[in-house]
TrEMBL record, chains A, B:
Pfam families assigned to the protein according to its UniProt record, in alphabetical order: HTH_20
PROSITE patterns per UniProt: HTH_ARSR_2
A GO molecular-function descriptor: DNA-binding transcription factor activity
Protein name: ArsR family transcriptional regulator
Domain HTH arsR-type: 1-90
DNA sequence: ATGTTATTTAATTAATAGGTTAATTTTATG
DNA sequence: CATAAAATTAACCTATTAATTAAATAACAT
């Protein structure tokens, strides 16, 4: 899967976004991350794997625990894409040129 | 599905992102949008339905054709989320406070 | 009325996602 | 050494996604 798709589909799940939100307040272990959710630990573990392979988090082994940290670079990839298109779309829709072009296309 | 999840999962598919990229250059009908892809028309039609229910595009009936247009507001929702977290994460990782907090958490 | 163009809906299939419980690995501790 | 804690892996189930082909609908052209 391409990195951008991986990032967006990682972000598409509310549980994973909540995990990221929690991690924005500081690092946490898997059990700490799982605590607020009423899903099983293996389910959380899989969510973390998704976030990790999208490079949105990083894990450090620490005794038997695995501490999770945010990895902000990956979000930047998505952020760049969204910003680029945000800008393109706004221009594309504000521009008189495009407006006229659309009218012309719509006419034939 | 919540709007943010809908937007991110719509953006998670490369075909759909390509369709959006095409639409950034101007409106297009379903057949025009389908042309560059070697997937069937029904497949494209379903992708458009996904984009439409995420409010990323809008469709106008025009004789037998359906003209698709970008709908930039929805991207803004995603853009806002990404920007918020981008900012939070950067702060969270740059801040000495958080760094020390992480160290302390990591120690016990 | 018939055929053509543009698109959607229906029915089906294969793959993936997200969840579960049970078993396993690794490290720590009585 | 036996047990507990932390997390992952395995095996499994179900729902959703993305694709297909075939049929249906709608508007227009002849």
């Amino acid at each position: 899967m391409d990195p951008l798709s991986a990032t967006f589909s990682a972000l598409a799940d509310p549980t994973r976004r909540a995990i990221l939100a929690r991690l924005a307040e500081g690092s946490a272990t898997v059990n700490e991350l799982a605590e607020p959710f009423d899903i099983s630990l293996p389910a959380v573990s899989r969510h973390l794997k998704v976030l990790e392979s999208a490079n949105l988090i990083r894990r450090e082994v620490e005794k038997q625990k695995r501490r999770c940290f945010l990895q902000p670079q990956a979000l930047k990839t998505a952020s760049d894409w969204v910003d680029l298109y945000s800008r393109m779309w706004t221009e594309s829709l504000d521009g008189l040129e495009k407006y006229l072009d659309d009218l012309k296309q719509a006419k034939d």
